[in-house]
Structure prediction request, 327 residues.
Amino acid sequence: MTPTHAEAQVDDFRQTYRNLETEIGKAVVGQADVVRGLLTALFAEGHVLLEGAPGLGKTMLVRTIARAAGLEFARVQFTPDLMPADIVGTNLIVEENGHKTFQFQRGPVFTNILLADEINRATPKTQSALLEAMQERHATVSGVQHAVPSPFLVLATQNPIEMEGTYPLPEAQLDRFLLKLIVNYPSGEELHEILDRTTAAAGAEIGRVLDSAESLREFQHLVREVPVVREVQERAVSLVMATHPANPNAVENARRFVRYGASPRGAQALILCAKIHALMAGRYHVARADIDSAAVPALRHRIVLNFEGEAEGVTTEQIVTEALART
Prediction:
């Protein structure tokens, strides 16, 4: 790739990213960090776990991103009685010309952006139905593999307040999410803006920024092509290893309060997000600061605290912040 061609691609990427931010901003007030995190996941083709109280616009945010990106969208409300077949689909008996055959009825997982609303309300069996699609990009029904569309993203929400009747996501499933983003309450001024928009006669029209899923795949390929030198990659490795209590370079709080540190997927998430951050800065190479910018959302859900850490009220964000400061 010639420098001129690379520069043109970077400029195109930055303009598309900004246009998506503009269109999303027509419907979503504030939440700038969450929007950037979701767009980062979109271009990295990674899944996102959104955590926030009810009524903060998580569903509308995801729907708006799908509309602006011109992608197919499906929503599943997770409940205790939801079955795996309700997500991936099932084989139905169909009669044609007097003959009965099995025909696969696709579930909502066969889309570009799947909103798994309140994912922690479904049983572990149903939660695990998403694992294969999230990791392998296909679903298996009656021994037959069915590929999900490309691109494919799972954007899951969970409510951190009402925990009764929920099934916390196991560490293996949490690790499948590229990022965990926290949706906070709006400020007073932002709440005024929300009221002005939502109580008016008509809502905002969201324009389509990407003309096809193929356009998005080209940008995703561009992200993968951004080079990372060994010295910068070492920063991602050091941050991950600093969260492991048995590692000689672990930070103090990790040794004391952590049971399991971040997985190799955490390092992969750091590199992918850093590449997108570099492109948005107008660079076709990754710097250490790009990796640091993604550390908290990429690692906070991959660290498991021990009993002492939970009892002391330590957060995984504190562990990551200490790793950023000490490594």
Observations:
- The CA atoms of residues 74 and 114 lie 5 Å apart.
- The radius of gyration is 21 Å.
